[in-house]
Amino acid sequence: GIAQRAWLIEPQGNYGNTLTGDDAAASRYIEARLTAFAREVLFNPKTTTWQLSYDGRAKEPVTLPAKFPITVLEGAEGIAVGLSTKILPHNFNDICRASINHLQGKTFRIFPDFPTGGIADFSEYNDGERGSRVKVRAKIETRSKYLLAITELPYGTTTVSLIESILSANTKGKLKIKHVDDNTADQVEILVHLPPGSDPDQVVQQLYVFTSCQVSLSPAACVIENDKPHFLGLREILRRSVDRTV
């Protein structure tokens, strides 16, 4: 995922496709290197501890203390007993603006930004604290009276899982469609063909209710500090990260 977005890692070879859910090639067939941006923001001579590499001819960093919170940019997910974490991805420019506002003593707000697009409802977001909720909808265009096009996905779904949910709802009689074409390459394009006599506006609403065209996300950011887990809001994570970077 980090390589696919190419902020910090430049991928070489088949790294799969986040839109379709295709897996990457086996690790022996793909290569990765740090981007110029990563070399600038990760390697800080004042904070990086170095060790000898495996053959002793060069040095390599023990860790890469980043100058900004990578998990807030990329998002993160994990499960542990009572400590499951789901940090949603954010926009890099938004993170920079929020950090500057904090340094200037101003208040700030920051909301997730999904690489798959979609339309989000943040009315119950509550700074991403435990118990908050985000609804994300696919972007659906009405191309003609009997043709709908899905051009952006809800975060966490793929074109394959979305099409499966549409076909399943059709089989169960929740909505009526003729067939579905997947034209996705670099951009998402799922064409939903409707039978004669359909009301496209009604089918769009049925897609949101009965399929993965609308999903509900429950963010919860668990941070380990002094060997103890804490559930924090996104603004508090950003404040602590900025203060530590200073």
Short recap of the structure:
Helices cover 26% and strands 25% of the residues.
Describe this structure as you would to a colleague.
With 246 residues, this protein is α+β, with helices and mostly antiparallel strands. It is built from seven helices and 15 strands. It has helices at 2-5, 36-42, 70-74, 92-103, 159-171, 200-210, 234-245; strands at 9-12, 31-34, 50-52, 59-61, 76-78, 85-87, 119-121, 134-137, 139-144, 147-152, 179-182, 190-193, 214-217, 221-225, 228-232. A four-stranded antiparallel sheet has the order 9-10-12-11, with helices on one face. The protein has a three-stranded antiparallel sheet with strand order 7-8-13. α4 packs across α7. The radius of gyration is 21 Å and the shape is globular. The two termini are 28 Å apart.
